[in-house]
Structures are given as structure tokens and as C-alpha cells.
Fold this protein.
Amino acid sequence: MSTTNPAPFPGQRGTRRWLTPDEEAAWRAFRRMLVAVTERTTKDLSPANLSMPDYDVLSTLADRADHRWGLREMAEKMEWSRSRLSHQISRMQTRGLVDRLPDDTDRRGVVLQLTPAGLAALREATSTHLASVRRRFVDHLNPEELETIRDLADRIAEAPG
Amino acid sequence: MSTTNPAPFPGQRGTRRWLTPDEEAAWRAFRRMLVAVTERTTKDLSPANLSMPDYDVLSTLADRADHRWGLREMAEKMEWSRSRLSHQISRMQTRGLVDRLPDDTDRRGVVLQLTPAGLAALREATSTHLASVRRRFVDHLNPEELETIRDLADRIAEAPG
């Protein structure tokens, strides 16, 4: 593995810590994969009129027995900021997919509730989406590779910010 | 490895091809990594007033000896659609980072040219960005893991659409 890298433009060599060719190739491949998987799964889901964030919100609510979740706790669970979740919910509320209810146990709190229309939309989209996740991701990896990618992904995602 | 999966909501079991728990865990970890790396590298670059697409465009132009590229060829190289690149260029043009020139060899063609301001912006951002790529991605992987992730990423990205 070489430890030098041609400068991508003149005059920038020497003082910076360039990536090695192997590091750069891995980073480029990683970014290509990221864009490809995101675009393809998004496109596969679009006939169901749902975005990936829509799907994530619906499935997270549906995972609960009562189909509801406090906004604060749900944002934590999804690893989204509360304001991002709140904006996303506003858009989905106008489409009748979720409701926003007062929280009986916390005057300033908000409870999110999956509506029957939201559940129906999720049900219609689920098999499409799972087939898409298989086709775009899972089917390209054997069990050992799935475990490897899970371990590396966990390590990278859990690195201190 | 179990091959069944509890249905995420009632009434949805049996007819669908659910992901196994291992597959689902790998997919979730993958998506967390994807979001984490994207958010962190974007945040690290923001003091330079550049987005990741800005940086990608500037560095792709700077890779060429004459700092210019035909729009069509550059879109292919970046694996972007031509309309996406064209919109991105319009935004960067108003900031003086790139120019759009007529193509002498093709009346309907467009040539993109890095401006001195664009090169200066890239130079200022490069060491920040490379340090960010190291900190958020490369430093968490040993050489063997880098090679593994590169192979898997290539395979997934190059799968037929």
C-alpha cells in the first residue's frame, strides 16, 4: 500500500495528510454504494407514494402495540432530532397518515399516533419495501458478509461524534 | 440464524417474505452508518461554506489539468444525472465557484470551468475534509477491513439497476 497520493490539484502537496490510494478507493466505493442504495430503495418505494422517512416513521409507530409513541422518545429511538421528526410529522399529518395528540402525562409533551390510513399505507408498502431491501442490499451479501458489514457499520455509527 | 421474524404489526404475517433478524439487523446498522457518516462529514465541511455536492463538483473539476469538463462527461463520471449536475452548477455559478462556457466542438454542449474563487474554496476546504473522512470513516477500519468494505461496496453499487 502506497502512502503517498498525487495531489488532486497543483500546489497542494506536502503539508496535508492525504488519503492513501487504498483509503481513497474505499471511501469512493463507500460513497457510491451509499448513493446507489439510497436512490434505488427510494425509487422502489415511490409507487407507494412514500419516501424512506415516511416509511421509517410509519414502521416505527407500527412496531408499538398501541401504534403510538411520545415525540421525544420516538426521536431518540430513530436517532433523529426532535425538530426533524416534528417537521416530518407535520407533513404526514396533512396527508392523514399520523395524528398528533396531547400527552396526558406531560402538559408540554406530544404523542404521535398512527392512523388507520397510515397503517393501510404501510401495509401496502411493506412487501414492496422488503423486496427492495433484499434486491438492493441483502441479496448481494452472504451471511458472513452481512455480519461483517453489521459489525463495521455499528463501529462507525457508534463512534463518538 | 432464525428464518422467521415477528411481524412488525398484526395481520401481516405469513404471506410476505420477511427479513431474518440477522438481515434486518445488518440493514438497520447499514442505514445508521449511512446517516451518521453523511451527517458528520457534512457538518465538518459546513464551516468552509461548502456542501458535500459542492465539494464533489469542485474536486472533480480540479482533478483535470485544465480545470474544465464537458457537462455530459462530468455527469457520467460523477454518476449524477445531467439535470442534477446542471442545477448544482447553477447554484455554484451564482456564488462564482464555477463558470459555464459554450463548447467549441459541440454547439449544444456546455463546458464547466473551475474559477479561481472555486479553486481557492476547494484549497481551503481540502485539509478539513480529508481530516473529516479519516476521523469519520478511515480511522475506524484496518487495511483488511478497508479492502473488504471496498469490495462489498463495489459489488452492491455495480449491481444492475
Q: What stands out?
A: The beta strands of chain A are 68-70, 98-102, 110-114.
